[in-house]
Design a protein that fits this description.
Radius of gyration: 32 Å
Structural class: alpha+beta
Order of helices and strands: HHEEHHHHEEEHEHEHHHHEEEEEEHH
CATH architecture of the largest domain: 2-Layer Sandwich
CATH topology of the largest domain: Nucleotidyltransferase, domain 5
Distance between the termini: 101 Å
Number of helices: 14
Strand order of the largest sheet: 8-11-12-13-10-9
Amino acid sequence: MVDRAQEVGLFRWRIVGEAADVSLSARERGALVRALAAREHLGPDGRWVRVSRNTLDRWIRAYREGGFDALVPAPRRMPNQTPARLLELACALRREQPARTAALIHRIIVETEGSSPSARTINRHLAAAGLPWKGGQIGRALGRFEAEVRNELWTGDALHGPMVGGRRTFLFCFLDDHSRLFCGYRWASREDVLNASRALRAGIASRGVPRAVYVDNGSPFVSGQLLRACAVLGIGLIHSRPGRPEGRGKIERAFRTVRQQWLVELEDRPSASLEELNQTFQAWVEQVYHRRVHSETEQTPLERFLAHGPPALPSERALREAFRWSERRTVSRTGTVGMHGNTYEVDPGLAGRRVDLVFDPLELAEVEVRLDGHHQGLAEPRQIKRHVHPRAQPPAKPAEATGIDYLGLIRQRRERELQKRIDYRHLPGPPAGGAGHDQDNNKEQAG
């Protein structure tokens, strides 16, 4: 679950995300905003609300200036004077790379200096200094569109795979639109947001941060956790409209190749475990698929992806922050806080305050405490009943094999029965005084 401020930010992003696309013309954006203002939207509190056009325009401007952070309402604070050296550093970062957004510059300064002006403040200062953003446009994932450069657009989808250990498997995959490279992929036994996020995270860690990700409306891709991860990293999350799957032809063709050239080989030699399935698939992707010339690009996916050298990779700290989950709780008067049956001890000075608990969904024993976005130490586990978040259940471990082949035992018993020859000479005769004796008595009476 995401805290209240994050929920509001995600709600705003879901509404204006498509309208904030810089590739839209003024007329297209105006028509889209009018349509958004004319219908109701499900708000973060579960109620249906309408949003005025002026508010929508304000949200779009805020996102363009400061990214996702600008859509998250901030707590009211007294204005602080921004250190001049940090603003000078922001200008230097923009001069060094004009394509850097204000949100990215904000994260770089936080990474190097420990604190930074807000993305909105940085954007205003850069505009006043004559250093506007000069990033390119993100093409729309429609029709026969092809991204001009790598990592401009990834397309994500899930493929139903073979049975392993009695469970259906699913391939989560993110394909680079420009090169047709499989950037992030993972076979899993659950079709959920946790495994979709793992595949995306693996791709970002090894291939860089995409500018946009295009996915369908399946439940693994519409979760707030995945939306938050994309928002934190500055990735645009685009959902195809129901009944209009334009722009998904490339990944569908890639999945057809997976079926025809890889899955078909598993029919006679199925994988014994999910780990083996992933290892075999990785070997095929990296050694065969990525090194074979594509019929449309006339290059191998790997060659086309690396045409301009290795991509810039995000730090492990940035990845960890993006893919962690958070929930908001109120600290008790005794300095404790509860979450999903677990009890933690925090700084007693936080008693009565609403804090954010930030954690890895697969390890609830390690929880960071934040107050208004600032680190307040680690929560000390007092009672841990659950180590895994209820919405992030790991794959169930297969039961230990008994070694009993039930059908084999039945087959053996049948074969033993068929091997027995029936000899009527050894069949027992009628019992004394039985049916044969009665027949003799009947013959005597008849004579």
